[in-house]
Write a structure and sequence with these properties.
alpha+beta; ten-stranded mixed β-sheet; 330 residues; L-amino peptidase D-ALA esterase/amidase; 6 helices
């Protein structure tokens, strides 16, 4: 079965993506929509998560179908955006039929970006609604948009040495089945291109113009800065047009964390709430087998992380400078 790399999570049949970017400060939210529903799963690895409806996705629990997944900035405040996603889906007649209404099922996760700009401005229900209105089935914008707007990375030694994170996407197709990912990268650690082993962005050196290599620095005995728990977090969605059970969706989300581990160094720390969702739209009847799907999931998650930082734009806010990967290589 020949394989090829493609562009984004929207290459998965049945998936749309919308972003809302708040122009008042660097924050925003993103939504992955499955209008006809998708079997969902989740795997939470970070020690400081902010999530919504993750218990529902347990294979032992009743509801089988997800209609959208919210990814948001604003820390726990950003979970409010899910209300707007539900309202938009409700207006479209999309949801779980409970007889007297259709209830949209919208799990979600948030990342911490309150330390970038005015923390009083956070994604709310109106932001979630606007993200749905902007949803497209074509390749979505990447970088400093949506949930990646206020994202930053490489904070182990303090924000003054950090760089700009963002949101990225990727997909791969094997035998007519596609797996894609949309990942908002706001990690404590650095981000690497797994294909060539090159560090793309992360904690900078004292002069601010080169990369420190966080793992190497820690192993050499350089002390990290005391971190506020949960002040980071990488969140995302893996989707496939193959048919999945809930148990398989949960396992696919877990396989995606292998991709995070390849791209982010260190990952799943006590200050990250790393959370990945997985969706199976079932638009393709056949499958290359679950082991192949798991390999594909890890691949696209790692690619999406690299794409997120490559597409990010540098940011200056007063004395805070968050250069993009392109700023250090220019």
């Amino acid at each position: 079965m020949p394989s090829h790399h493609s562009t984004s999570i929207t290459d998965v049949r049945g998936i749309e993506v919308g972003h809302f970017t708040d122009t008042r400060r660097p924050t925003g939210c993103s939504v992955v929509i499955a209008r006809t529903g998708a079997v969902g799963g989740v795997d939470v690895r970070g020690a400081a998560p902010g999530t919504r409806e993750t218990d529902l996705l347990d294979p032992a629990n009743l509801v089988n179908t997800v209609h959208a997944v919210l990814l948001s900035g604003g820390s726990a405040f950003g979970l409010d955006a899910a209300g707007g996603v539900m309202r938009w889906l409700d207006e479209q007649g999309i949801g779980l039929d409970v007889g007297v209404a259709r209830v949209p099922i919208v799990p979600g996760a948030v990342l911490f970006d309150l330390n970038v700009g005015d923390s009083r401005i956070r994604p709310d229900a109106a932001a979630g609604y606007a993200a749905c209105q902007a949803a497209v089935s074509t390749e979505p914008a990447q970088g400093s948009v949506g949930a990646g707007t206020g994202a930053c990375i490489g904070k182990m030694f303090g924000m003054k040495y950090a760089m700009k994170g963002g949101i990225g996407s990727a997909s791969v197709c094997v035998g007519g089945v596609t797996v894609g990912a949309l990942i908002a990268v706001n990690a404590l650690g650095d981000v690497m291109d797994m294909e060539n082993g090159i560090l793309l962005a992360g904690a900078r050196t004292e002069d601010g113009h080169a990369l420190r290599h966080t793992n190497r620095a820690l192993l050499a005995g350089e002390p990290p800065l005391a971190m506020l728990a949960g002040a980071n977090t990488t969140i995302g969605v893996i989707a496939t047009d193959a048919t999945l059970t809930k148990a398989q969706a949960q396992r696919l989300a877990g396989a995606g964390h292998d991709g995070l581990a390849r791209a982010i160094h260190p990952v799943h720390t006590m200050s990250d709430g790393d959370t990945l969702f997985a969706l199976g739209t079932g638009h393709v009847a056949h499958s290359p087998g679950f082991n192949v799907l798991a390999v594909m999931a890890a691949e696209v998650v790692a690619q999406a992380c690299a794409n997120a930082v490559r597409a990010a734009q540098g940011l200056r806010l007063g004395d805070l400078w968050l250069p993009a990967a392109s700023d250090l290589t220019a």
